[in-house]
């Protein structure tokens, strides 16, 4: 049945024709045009606010703050992509973040020390708390997913119920009080000067990132050669590699130009006996903040799940054509259930960042997250028609939305004004996308 | 018919399916042998597709038996059917439009690396091989199948069914959406698959298609199988009369006979 000769490509197929337009030129690099466009939009937003603020906006400290603020939303948005791709929705994420954040706070103030006898000095107490939070997230997500997938209640209803009732549970957990006082180690999850990885690790990570980019390009090309598939033109490979590495190293350099606050540096210097204070004070590079590292990890794992694993393939297939997925013998209910379990886990991670930054939990922590998360996914190209959306897109979408909010507040627009803009941008982004797709399909 | 006493590859016996009060399939019995094409004809709503959906595992039967290689089996979902090498090309094609051709060909049966990740290179390479046979002009292996033409989409659906060593192939209106050239291509393919020893159930509205390709013809009427006849023993007119009146030629009354002759 198989003929070896069949696998060899038609001569001339291996090299695509010379590009005739910018669009074709970009197409040859096989970059996702949508993602590329959004990246441009993000850069334009940053530049615009930088100009309006007279060059003050685009500083390392501001950008690190922006990234930390966006990371919680972005982490949940990576899961929301899969939920929306499979024609469902999850409105309960904000409440779930609230319940888990409150759980972290209570664990560290009451339950771990008083009930389980694990005092503040217990090693890896932060990890124990995080593990419990993840388990709760997975359980609540799994329960909602079960009702949606196996009982067949529409996800809008189930998670709307979740939104209401889980938020109520937050109140009962703490009897209506805000709780504060987390482990010092747990607080590091939230970023800040101490909760960043420092210059040496940032550089190491950047170099590893560059090597990974080169290795991926190289391996992809070798793989396609081996099977005789068409490959990208060499210039495109080099361009992608160079641009990728420059961006990675640039971000690392930028993060390393965000320094510890003076007071903190002085205090730590005194504690650790760093000697006399140098001229102009200590300049300790903070490097990339922990929440951003967490987001990076989540994005990589979620992208891998979505594109390299059966789970992702089935989620997309179901979104594209539920009947086809069913007839192909896919256990579609199980895959839907998994998307909600994943959402619960991601909510637990976002809750850790939110509560760590706050050093505690309030009753309204995580409020309205569902709206920002859905907006991020949709601005990032996820379609409610199902089957379409990417995880890097959603992460970028979260950064676009957050850069708008942060930029507006930086130039003095109040929060109602920020909401007006965010809402309009959401609609414009989707309108633009809809028109673009219609043109593309006709 | 064949003089060989080999048992059918697949036999469905006494199948009943009801949707609420509507009896879509009544006590239907049908079989197919190796290298045989069985045409399944009947009017709209006669129960052809429903009967075949039972065999595909897409819809459970209320009662009745499915026998594969002489042994009764239980087919409750599409995975069961595929495990007996019973493959189906649905009228709707059942493709995930947002996924590329290799993804669709291997949907639910992905090739994976030793660590369980999708092996896209192998899947693309295998898809290139099989599409090279089915539709040599096909090159859009990286495009979502949404962007393909009707014939190309059909080829992807066929590739999916035949790649996994089908022994029984169910084709539901395989040429309904195709142009003349593509229809001819599908007909050739059916002959080729038949020569490979695959048993084929061919659902079609086109009586000429059925006469051209089938060895035996089963006629359905209001959920019942009116009769299964060897193609050589009937004329197209007789089959048409069975489709319209739901009676075997020898059951027709004199008046019905005259009416049919008047019509033709």
Describe the protein.
The complex is a heterodimer of chains A (442) and B (264). With 442 residues, chain A is mainly alpha-helical. Helix content of chain A is 71%, strand content 1%. The two termini of chain A are 37 Å apart. Mean pLDDT of chain A is 90; it is low at 1-15. Chain B is an alpha/beta fold. Chain B contains nine helices and ten strands. In chain B, the strands form two sheets. A six-stranded mixed sheet of chain B has the order 6-7-8-3-9-10, with helices on both faces. In chain B, helix 4 (120-134) packs across helix 5 (150-163). Chain B starts with 9 loop residues before the first strand and ends with a helix. Chains A and B meet through helix 9, helix 12, helix 13 and helix 14 of A and helix 2 and helix 4 of B.
Provide keyphrases for this structure.
heterodimer, A: 442 residues, mainly alpha, two-stranded antiparallel ribbon, 2 strands, 1% strand, globular, disordered N terminus, B: 264 residues, alpha/beta, four-stranded antiparallel β-sheet, 35% helix
Percent helix range of chain A: over 70%
Weakly predicted, low-confidence segments of chain A: 1-15
What would the average pLDDT of chain B be, to the nearest integer? 89
The major beta sheet of chain B can be summarized as: 6 strands, mixed
Number of strands of chain B: 10
Unreliable spans of chain B are none
Termini gap of chain A? 37 Å
H/E element order of chain B:
EEEHEEHEHHHEHEHEEHH
Major β-sheet strand ordering of chain A = 1-2
Strand content of chain B: 15-25%
List the helices and strands and how they pair.
The complex is a heterodimer of chains A (442) and B (264).
Chain A (H helix, E strand, L loop, with lengths): L3 H4 L14 H7 L4 H20 L7 H26 L7 H23 L9 H27 L3 H20 L4 E2 L3 H4 L10 H29 L7 H22 L6 H11 L17 H19 L1 H11 L1 H6 L4 H27 L1 E2 L7 H11 L11 H20 L4 H27 L1
Chain B lengths: L9 E10 L2 E11 L4 E6 L5 H9 L6 E6 L2 E3 L4 H6 L2 E4 L11 H5 L14 H15 L15 H14 L4 E5 L7 H16 L3 E5 L3 H7 L2 E6 L2 E7 L5 H10 L8 H10 L1
Parallel strand pairs in B: 3-8, 3-9, 6-7, 7-8
Antiparallel strand pairs in B: 1-2, 1-4, 4-5, 9-10
